[in-house]
């Protein structure tokens, strides 16, 4: 039986996997690692706060309403992924975005989400 694209929810996968160059495969793995770090609402909230400028651990903890240990765990993951940088000033730990592009990337994801929600709203209105 011939494969009917209109009946299948997903496109048919190729018969054999394409072999990617090692460099490209490594880039995809690195990108996936960053996406995994971004896949947590609390970490997105931290990035959103840091998009406004450098903040101390105490400021972040107060604004987020989370424990020092929980904040430390989130920051450690984001630092390891290269998304956040930290420095100390006296006894205070200060945190900032490692790259301005992180703020831009989060904004683009929000734009996609807004478009998706709008499309869903249009569909919901058409069903009424």
Question: Overview of this structure, please?
Answer:
The structure is a single chain. By secondary structure, this protein is mostly helical. It has one domain: Arc Repressor Mutant, subunit A, CATH 1.10.10.10. The protein is built from five helices and three strands; from the N terminus they run H-H-E-H-H-E-E-H. The chain has a three-stranded antiparallel sheet with strand order 1-3-2. Strand 2 (84-89) and strand 3 (92-97) form a beta hairpin. Helix 2 crosses helix 5 (100-126). It is flat. The two termini are 39 Å apart.
Based on CA inertia axes, which overall geometry fits? flat
What's the domain count?
Answer: 1
Into which percent range does the helicity of residues fall?
55-70%
| Strand count | 3
The CATH homologous superfamily is named: Winged helix-like DNA-binding domain superfamily/Winged helix DNA-binding domain
Our estimate of the beta-strand percent is 5-15%
CATH hierarchy: architecture: Orthogonal Bundle
Q: Look up the CATH topology.
A: Arc Repressor Mutant, subunit A
Class, according to the CATH hierarchy?
Mainly Alpha
């Amino acid at each position: 039986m011939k494969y009917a694209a209109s009946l299948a929810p997903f496109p048919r996968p190729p018969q054999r996997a394409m072999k990617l160059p090692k460099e490209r495969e490594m880039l995809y793995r690195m990108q996936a690692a960053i996406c995994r770090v971004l896949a947590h609402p609390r970490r997105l909230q931290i990035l959103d706060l840091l998009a406004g400028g450098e903040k101390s651990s105490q400021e972040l903890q107060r604004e987020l309403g989370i424990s020092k240990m929980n904040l430390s765990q989130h920051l450690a993951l984001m630092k390891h992924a290269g998304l956040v940088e930290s420095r100390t000033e006296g006894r205070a730990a200060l945190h900032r975005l490692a790259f301005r592009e992180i703020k831009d990337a989060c904004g683009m994801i929000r734009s996609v989400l807004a478009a998706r929600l709008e499309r869903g709203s249009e569909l919901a209105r058409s069903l009424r």
